[in-house]
């Protein structure tokens, strides 16, 4: 049965019932004309009982909206289902996940805890609760206030492992547990444990491109580009139409110096998903590294138009293009955005400092701002030689 057709029917049913209820309410409150007096013994006409919409219908609508990325609408539907049936596990897990997507982290955590208290062997509830702790940690303005979240996430994952299905079907759920552990270890800054967790996840579920991607990404984060390339290539082979994996693979090829192989891979990723900001932007990055400035500028500009807030890297490379061509005003604007969105990346601050150190035409140098950005870059990376040289020049 087609899910979209089924949910559309449920939506139609709910709309119909809602209109019927509204009509009944209007009928009850609308003014009436004076009617002849009825005999005292006349009994009132029986009224039909209001039809109650089952919780399962609201859950189905919640699933539909959640899959469409309309998390506010999903939240409303799941909440209605949970109010009708407070012990409905499908309603509670959908509600908890929707709350997390809407950044209602504390409420989401509480909902998922309630679900586990009702169904202590609900594997998905444990995974979702662990993810909620992680997302609250990532989204916190003051991470010290939620410092215990990552350890809580690991504790919940241990509980998830204990309730994973037995037998041959156990491997895939366990791969999810290890994959989530990998994310937590990465946030804790433990690259060795993160790699081991992602490797374990991929061993349990070897044909999953996301797990291969995560393992490759962790190898890149720890400076092992050959291993990163190996796993990203496997991810592309497993799922050749995944534009995200292919774009990342292309970028790593370019960074390793293999621009001949990188350019067609990046172009293919952008063709596969022309509205995917990451794929389009990495085509721009690869083009910049290959000194194809026209393609780089077009693709990077398109990427930040598609998603203005998610990828500081693309503003960084646009700023580099501006610097290369002497467009200092535009360089400062793009590099400021990069540094604001990626405040923990010293390269963004260094090049922002460089844009202020330089002057051209009506744009005067600003040695004070240059020095401030060089100092900020050095604070993040004390051994950053270029930033130290820039600071020495501007003192």
From TrEMBL:
The cross-references to SMART domains, in alphabetical order and at most eight, read: SEL1, TPR
The entry's keywords: Repeat, Signal, TPR repeat
Instruction: Show me the TPR repeat boundaries.
Output: 55-88, 175-208, 209-242
**The keyword Repeat is assigned to this record:** yes
Entry's transmembrane regions: none
Give the signal peptide range: 1-27
User: Keyword Calcium on this protein?
Assistant: no
Superkingdom: Bacteria
The name under which this protein is listed is Uncharacterized protein
């Amino acid at each position: 049965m087609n899910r979209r057709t089924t949910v559309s029917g449920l939506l139609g049913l709910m709309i119909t019932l809602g209109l019927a209820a509204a009509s009944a309410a209007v009928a009850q409150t609308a003014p009436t004309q004076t009617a002849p007096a009825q005999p005292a013994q006349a009994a009132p006409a029986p009224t039909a009982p209001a039809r109650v919409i089952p919780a399962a219908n609201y859950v189905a609508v919640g699933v539909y909206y959640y899959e469409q990325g309309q998390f506010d609408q999903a939240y409303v539907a799941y909440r209605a289902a949970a109010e009708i049936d407070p012990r409905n596990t499908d309603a509670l897990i959908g509600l908890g996940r929707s709350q997390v997507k809407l950044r209602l982290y504390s409420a989401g955590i509480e909902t998922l805890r309630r679900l586990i208290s009702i169904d202590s062997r609900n594997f998905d509830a444990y995974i979702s609760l662990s993810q909620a702790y992680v997302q609250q940690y990532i989204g916190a303005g003051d991470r010290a206030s939620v410092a215990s979240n990552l350890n809580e996430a690991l504790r919940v994952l241990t509980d998830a492992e204990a309730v994973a299905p037995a037998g041959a079907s156990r491997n895939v759920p366990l791969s999810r547990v290890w994959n989530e552990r990998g994310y937590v270890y990465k946030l804790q800054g433990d690259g060795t444990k993160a790699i081991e967790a992602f490797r374990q996840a991929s061993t349990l579920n070897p044909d999953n491109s996301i797990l291969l991607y995560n393992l490759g990404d962790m190898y890149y984060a720890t400076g092992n580009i050959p291993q990163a390339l190996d796993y990203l290539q496997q991810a592309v082979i497993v799922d050749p139409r995944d534009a995200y994996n292919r774009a990342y693979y292309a970028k790593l090829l370019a960074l390793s110096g293999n621009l001949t192989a990188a350019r067609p891979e990046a172009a293919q990723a952008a063709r596969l998903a022309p509205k995917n900001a990451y794929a389009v932007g990495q085509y721009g990055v690869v083009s910049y590294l290959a000194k194809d400035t026209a393609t780089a500028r077009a693709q990077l500009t398109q990427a930040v138009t598609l998603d203005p807030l998610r990828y500081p890297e693309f503003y960084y490379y646009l700023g580099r293009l501006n610097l290369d061509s002497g467009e200092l005003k535009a360089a400062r604007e793009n590099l400021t955005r990069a540094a604001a969105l990626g405040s923990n990346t010293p390269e963004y601050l260094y090049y922002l400092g460089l844009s202020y150190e330089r002057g051209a035409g009506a744009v005067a140098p600003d040695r004070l701002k240059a020095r401030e950005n060089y100092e900020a870059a050095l604070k993040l990376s004390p051994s950053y030689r270029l930033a130290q040289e820039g600071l020495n020049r501007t003192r």
